[in-house]
Amino acid sequence: MVMMMMITKSVLSGSFLLLLLSSTVSGLGSVVTRFYSQVRNHVSWQEAQSYCRRSNAYIDMAVLYTHSDRDRMYLDNYNAWIGLYKNSNNWDWSDGENTNFYGWRRYEPRNADTCAYVDYSDKKFVGDDCGTYFFFLCHKRHKRNYEYKFMSTSMTWSEAQQHCRDSDKYDDLATFENIGDAGGGGGNGSGDSSGDGGGSGDSSWVNMYSFIKLENFPVWIGLHRDGGTWNWSIGSSEYGSWEPGEPSDSGDCVSISSSEKKMSAQNCSIRLPFVCMNDNLILVKENRPWEEALEHCRNLIAPYYYHYELVSVQPSDHDYVTSRVIDAETEEVWTGLRFLAGRWLWVNGADMLYSDLPTCPVEVQSCGALPKKDTGILETRDCSEKRNFLCYRTWF
Fold it and tell me: Pick from 211, 245, 271: which residue ends a domain?
């Protein structure tokens, strides 16, 4: 990386502005990064949207703009009810099997727990309230062997039990008869994890992966249909990777499959896990001139190896970044756009891809602002004017 330091006199303030420009030979592209997190609570689409918006950790439900966004969504983990439940003070299996296998996670179950699910992330049993909604596992017994089937419908424990029992293909909610059925270790049914065994030479540890395996299930994303028009929960995007025959008239909310990453229309009231989104942008609702905005971003406290800069905007990010400044208290927000040495540039060294900027701007209008209303362009403004501004987090 080539480091270039430029000192130029501020026409307006009479002070000297130190601009540290970092660039590579090829320039810097998009600086906007979106992060996606799967939430394993099973709720309706509206409840999922409310959860993502209320949480300090997220912005909104997931919006997809590119295939790389899709590929950054890791949706492998799930919870699935099994046939283990609390009967008085004892934990029993739904089908009445007298088995001593209880593959509890350490410190599980808790006193208030009444039913058990298996967590795919560690293949351990976890206690919960029987009225919670999860996916579930049914089994069919063949003499001493069990055949297991993952069900990607969200139900309470009792509903799941009834569904398995009513099926012609399965007998009951999943029972694991010995350590070889579900995998490594567990306690004695009372939270004791002293049997937390398993190892590279333990065949039962291998069996864990054959019975509790990667599955394909639906999760909510932020796309829904309103008045016949498909809209994202935040911003706008043309992205669509639909299942064959979709979008259908099955519902007005959209799920994406966890493994295949294909989209389907669903009834908005069904319960599913969901995906929330965050990014590396910070809207600062303080009115400052451009130079102070630049300094403020650079002085923000960031995690180790990170720092903040005034944002650069590429045309491909324009719609999304505009959606992130909708709550600004000024009609426009400062960006890292500056006219210096006879040309427009981004102070972080990013590629300049906007071709509609004035080649010879009015002398004082040498700083760039982004309007809250999505006009598709950047405005040139007097650098001494005070506005909110948008920072982004990046590596040193």
Answer: 211
